[in-house]
Amino acid sequence: MTSSIKSIIYLFHLLFLTTVFSQEFSITGKIIDENKQGIEGSEIVLLSEGNIVNSAITNFEGNFTLKNKPGVYSLRFYFVGTVIYQTDFNLDKNIDLGTLKSFDNSTQLREVEVTSKKRVIENQVDRTVFNVENSIRSTGTDGFELLKATPGVFISGNQIGIVGKSTVSVLIDDKIVNLSGNELINYLRGISSENIKNIEVITTPPAKYDAQGNSGLINIKLKKAPEDSWAVNLRNYYMQTSYPSYLGGVSFTFNKKKLSLFTDYIRQTGHDKYWENISNGFETENWEGRTNRKDTRDINRLAFSLDYKITEKASIGTKYIGLLDNPDTKDRNNTTVRDNASNAVTSIFLTNGSNKNDSSNHTLNVYYIQQLDTLGKKLTVDFDYFKYIDDQNRTFNTSEFTPENVQIGQSFIANNTSLQDILNYSGKIDVELPTKWATYGFGGKLSFIENKSNIAFYNLSNGTPILDINQTNDFDYAENTQSVYGNFKKSLGKKWQTQIGFRYENTIVEGTTTSLDVTQNQTNDFSYNQIFPTVYLSYTHNENHNFSVNYSKRIGRPIFWHLNPFKVYINSFTYAEGNPFLQPSFTDNYEINYNYKENLSFKIYYSNTIDGTAQLPIIQTNEGETILRYFRDNYADRSQFGGTISYYFDKFSWWESSNTLNGFNNVTTFIKDVPTEARNGFQYHFFTYNTFTLNKSKSLKAEVNFEFHSARREFYYSGTQYNKLDVGLRYSIKEKGLNFILLASDIFRSYQADFTSFVNNVSQLNNSYFDERKILVGVTYKFGNKKLTASQRESGNEEVQERLK
Q1: Of 340, 218, 330, which is closest to residue 279 (Cα–Cα)?
Q2: Which residues pair with 429 in a beta bridge?
Q3: For the segment 141-155, what is each residue's pLDDT rounded down to a tens digit?
Q4: Residue 457, class by beta-carbon neighbours within 10 Å (0-12 exposed, 13-18 middle, 19+ buried)?
Q5: E strand or H helix that includes residue 27
């Protein structure tokens, strides 16, 4: 252990000891309803100058206990998101408030709701909190739609992101959701907007979270469920792109005394279309290729969670997500070869391909939470299991023809199979120790990953499968990561706050390639370790002005599939190849933030990545045949310097608008000898999400969403600008639990760009479209006792999931 680590541990030890002799007083009492029955599950919040300093939950008899240092406070009681009681007092001794009767008339409720209304946007030392209960979208929609109203968050296609971040992970109640793309969106659509308390946007994750990925976090906090509640939520969506698709889902929630249950099942079927145009300009000829692909949607997903409260301070639970997917594809590629001098067609290549794909994804989380006192001290233990299997079987047939459509030679027919089997299991412990002087946190995690991949290539041109031993192998990869962290958070007077954290991760890697050609066998063993600091400093001048600065260090571990050294063929002259010697990349992130009131925010950021990985298209000639080879390596260092402006507009009761403008300059420096030049420059993005209430009852709403991406120069390519316009209507019959949805996406089919590059003295023009223009019609129906759904808890394999694709 280094001297610096010892010093850090010693510092935390001294800080912790100073709290032992701190003075604090208790607040006790009981809250009852109009029938003089104790109200169980009421959320109690203790506030000082409008800031939450402590909280608790009433027990089954309505009793509560809080402890805090002396001072003047407000005590506020919430039930189902509504304030049911409020009182102010001076805490200079132990206080027994006795029996408190909840408000029983609308006038009292309205008076307290006015005085207790939370700020729409709260800026904390390490995150921005969007209190969605004041949003137009907070009723009659779902978790996915609420993200559109969240400042700094963008929805682009099937991707959810934070402006200025390369990737993002979504959490629910501080637990990662192990889904991505359409599956994540479908999962969020199953969470009713009425059940969401707030959304936290964390651009610089604290030391508690894994250091993997230069990403931010979106943490969706759910409202606490009252006792004796159950509900069924049915949802059906029909979507029309180039092909139709259908999604049906049903969820059931139940909360009774100590038991909370949640289940959700979806079934999705249909197809998607993808097409791509590629033009490669060689010295003497030009290749003009067009690919049309039809992707199958055949998905079954089951989510299940069970939580049991052992005692008032101890609970245990489990969460399972299972996903079965068969995304089979059929594709057709037509490549025309032209002579540059005469522009005459010299030959045509036609490829037909079919890919059979079976994949499964199983995640299991078991947790235990022990509350250590009423001040929020707690111990959390998590065990996670993750199993992912992806089995692909691709057959393709490439034939060459003359301009007169006469076949030249024999067709090349091949079968390329691949199997990836990933097993991950991990355990972690987190301890939170809030005190009157500061808040401490520490913990550790052990993670074990086994990745088994194999690729086989068969030549079927002569009718008999012939195994190509040079393109067939088994690749086994094992990774063991141990990590520990410590975190310290403290208020420095009334206006300053700081948070400092350190996370240490040590990773041991072993990769083995086994081939029928023993000369290609290899073993690659290595290890690496790093300390990942996070530092935050926040200054609040008054309620209208807040400043903050923060810093973090992150790691980008290679995606598993990118480590496999063998080839995956697209056609007879195009293939992608992995690299078992890929190393992790490291990124330093800096941010300066300024927030004006609760609607306007500015951010300046800088990030620097060393040993960044990327995939380059490299042109090679083998025995007179031209091959397009996509190869991945640690090619470059990259830096970005930019700024973001976010404005949340809600001045009118009928219009809500979330707007973000982000611009940055990127600089790429190649650290290896590559046959291209870096393209650097400035680019910007603009996102606006608008919701309009069209009638007095607020049952009919419209939305207009628009995003714009400027032209860009980055890495080795340039891209043209592109944009997307979405519109929609929503109609809710709240008393019957019915919601009707009509959405149109990418109306002008403008969500596509042209990308150009120059590699190996070969120019390339690429244009692709993922069938973003679509119409969605949906209906959801919720029935039960009209109370909230039970809290959901997610598993913690986020750093593994992020490396699958």
Answers
A1: 340
A2: 381, 444
A3: 778 878 887 888 888
A4: buried
A5: strand 25-32
**pLDDT mean over 790-805:** 49
505 DSSP β-pair partners: 483, 530
Neighbours of 431 (CB within 10 A): 18
Instruction: Give the N- to C-terminal CA distance of the chain in Å, as an integer.
Output: 36
Helix (H) or strand (E) holding 185: helix 181-189
Least Cα distance to 736 among 764, 707, 699 occurs for 699
C-alpha to C-alpha distance for 716 and 71, rounded to whole angstroms: 60
- Alpha carbons 208 and 484: distance in angstroms, whole number: 9
Q: What SS3 class is residue 519? A: helix
Residues contacting 451, CB < 8 A, separation 6+: 420, 421, 422, 423, 476, 477, 478, 479, 560, 563
Q: Which CATH class is domain 1-114?
A: mainly beta
CATH of 222-801, one of 2.40.170.20, 1.10.10.10, 3.90.1010.10, 3.30.70.60: 2.40.170.20
Q: Which of 299, 360, 296 is nearest to 331 (CA)?
A: 296
Domain boundaries, the chain: 1-114, 222-801
Integer Cα distance of 403 and 13 in angstroms: 79
pLDDT tens figures, 393-420:
999 999 999 999 999 999 999 999 989 8
Residues 710, 684 contacting (CB under 8 angstroms)? yes
Single out the residue of 583, 565, 559 nearest to residue 631, CA to CA: 565
Measure the CA–CA gap between 145 and 131, rounded to whole angstroms.
14
- pLDDT at position 719: 96
Share of the chain residues as helix, strand and coil, in percent rounded to the nearest 5 = 10, 65, 25
The pTM assigned to this predicted structure is 0.80
Tell me what pLDDT residue 352 has: 94
CA distances from 795 to 189, 573, 764 (A): 19, 42, 42
Whether the pLDDT of residue 801 is over 70: the answer is no
Q: Which residues contact 373 (CB under 8 A, 6 or more apart)?
A: 67
- How many CA atoms are closer than 13 Å to the CA of 155, on its beta-carbon side? 23
Most distant CA pair in the chain, distance: 97
Give the residue from 407, 395, 183 showing the smallest Cα distance to 299: 183
Q: What angle do CA 296, 298, 303 make, to 5 degrees?
A: 145
Tokens 């120069």 — which residue?
A: 713
